[in-house]
Amino acid sequence: MNDEPKEPLLLDHEADGIKELDNLLPRWWVWLFYATIIFSVFYLLHYHVFKFGDLQITEYEKEWKKGEAIKAAAVAQFESTMGALQPSQDAAGLDQGREIFGKMCAPCHRPDGGGLVGPNLCDDYWIHGSNYVDSVKTILTGVPDKGMLTWRGVLKPNEIQCVASFIYTLRGTKPLNPKPPENQPQPQKPSEFE
Ligand code: HEC
Questions:
Q1: In this prediction, what percent of the chain has a pLDDT beyond 90?
Q2: Whose CA is closest to atom 8 on ligand 1?
Q3: Is residue 137 a contact partner of residue 82, using CB atoms and an 8 Å limit?
Q4: Whether the predicted pLDDT of 8 surpasses 70
Q5: Closest ligand 1 atom to Cα of 163
Q6: Are 180 and 119 in contact (CB under 8 A)?
Q7: How far apart are the C-alpha atoms of 136 and 194, rounded to whole Å?
Q8: What's the rounded Cα separation, in Å, for the pair 70 and 68?
C-alpha cells in the first residue's frame, strides 16, 4: 500500500466523456474495513461454529422467560396479599363504605342489602363466594353477564376496601322483605377473619 501514488490517479478508461478518479481511501477507513473482516471471523466462530453465544431468537426466548417469571411472581404476590386482606374495622372507613354503597350499590342491592336486581348480601346464600376476599374480587371484576357492574377503575382501591368492609357488616343482618336465596347456602367460615 505504501507504494500507492500520493496524488489522485486518473484511470485510463472513459464512457461518454465520463472519467474515473481513483481517489485514495483514508487510512483510518481502510483499517476499519480490515478490522470488520477480522471481527467477522471471531463473530462467526463465536456464534455459529462453537455456538458460545446466543443467537437473537434464543436471546429473545430467554428474555421472554425472564419476563414471564417476573409476571408470575407479581401475580403470586398479588394473590397472596389478596388472601391476607381483612375487612376494615375502622369507623370512618365503614362510614365511607356505607355512603358509597348508598350511592352506587343500593339501586340494585337495596340500602339495607336485602337485594333487588342484585342478590341479598345479608344472608348465607352466595353466588360468588361468601368470604371477604370473594366479595372484593366480585366487586373488582363484576359479573357483566348477570348485571353486576365492574367497579375496577370506577372506585379507587381504598373505596373498594371500604364498601366491601361495609357489606361485610351486613352479613347476618335481617332486612325486611329480603330477596329470596339464589344459591345453596355457603356459611362463611367464622374462624377465617376473627
Ligand atoms: C346494576 C345493578 C348492580 C349494581 C349497581 C351493583 N350490583 Fe352487585 N350484583 C348485581 C347482580 C345482578 C349480582 C348477581 C350476579 C350474578 O348473578 O352472578 C350482583 C352480585 C354482587 C355480589 C356477589 C353476591 C353473591 O351472591 O356472590 C356482591 C358482593 C356485590 N354484587 C356487591 C356490589 C357492590 C359493593 C356494589 C356497589 C359498589 C354493587 N354490587 C353494585 C347487580 C348490581
A1: 63
A2: 148
A3: yes
A4: no
A5: 35
A6: no
A7: 18
A8: 5
pLDDT in tens, 43-58: 999 999 999 999 999 9
Q: Is 106 in the pocket of ligand 1 (CB under 6 A)?
A: no
Contact partners, residue 23, CB within 8 Å, separation at least 6: 8
- Going by alpha carbons, the residue nearest to atom 29 of ligand 1 is 135
Distance 190 CA to ligand 1 centre (A): 23
**CA-closest residue to ligand 1 atom 16:** 146
CA of 161 to the centre of ligand 1 (A): 15
Compute the distance between CA of residue 102 and CA of residue 31 in angstroms, rounded to an integer: 79
pLDDT, tens digit, 9 for 90 and up, residues 103-138: 999 999 999 999 999 999 999 899 998 889 889 989
Give the distance (Å) from ligand 1 centre to CA of residue 189.
Answer: 21
The ligand 1 atom nearest the CA atom of 129: 27
pLDDT of residue 36: 98
125 in Cβ contact with 183 (< 8 Å): yes
* Closest listed residue to residue 128, CA positions, set 112, 103, 145, 111: 145
CB 166 within 8 A of CB 90: no
Residue 59 and residue 127: Cα distance in Å, rounded?
A: 46
Alpha carbons 124 and 186: distance in angstroms, whole number: 6
Q: How far is the CA of 121 from the centre of ligand 1 (A)?
A: 9
